[in-house]
Amino acid sequence: MIAKTAEIPTRQTRKEKQAETRRRLLDAAERVFLRRGLQGSSVEEIAAEAGFTRGAFYSNFNSKNELFVELLQQRVYAQYTQMAEETQARPGTPRERLRWGIARVRDVQKGESGRRLFRLWLECLTEAARDDEFRKVAATFWSGNRKLLARQTNDNFKELGRKAPLPAKQIATAMIALDVGLAVQHLVDPDEVPLDLYIPLFDLLFGGLIETE
Known about the structure:
This protein has 213 residues and is mainly alpha-helical. The chain folds into 2 domains: 14-61, Arc Repressor Mutant, subunit A (Orthogonal Bundle); 65-210, Tetracycline Repressor, domain 2. The chain is 74% helix and 0% strand. The protein is elongated. The relative contact order is 0.10.
């Protein structure tokens, strides 16, 4: 019988160690922000939650706000950007793609992870209301989504061979407003504003604009 050779653990590179440290800090920050809120949390608590020192925190992030922005960038904005791009790559008519994409947006909020991320986004809006500089950072998230949705709107009308009834950026702004409005109302009054309203309302207000003739 041949004895098995013990596997030698692979040592992490410096870059891998730093990536792992940042990931653990982001995970810890999400828990702390949800527990304490952005204003009520501290660098020390986040570092301790991740199992690191204050020095380890500042080796990776310049401030608590910088970490918060990266957390939203990775776990909220990037997710919605990916969904929007996947929607536009789907087969079918523009209206069919709209309905498929809105179903994806709706389903994010059905899971616990999605509800946690929405609470983080509300923290972002609260801080933006207090701090002019932070407001500029918060605006970049929506400006990115607005630009992406506007480009898709232009592509849809180009595919249909028609001119949009309003500038594409304005249509994108209205779509974001409906999404946020429904999400907030569902959070505080889920019985009156169920998530099932997403598809019929988006289809009513925007689907007809991109219906094939």
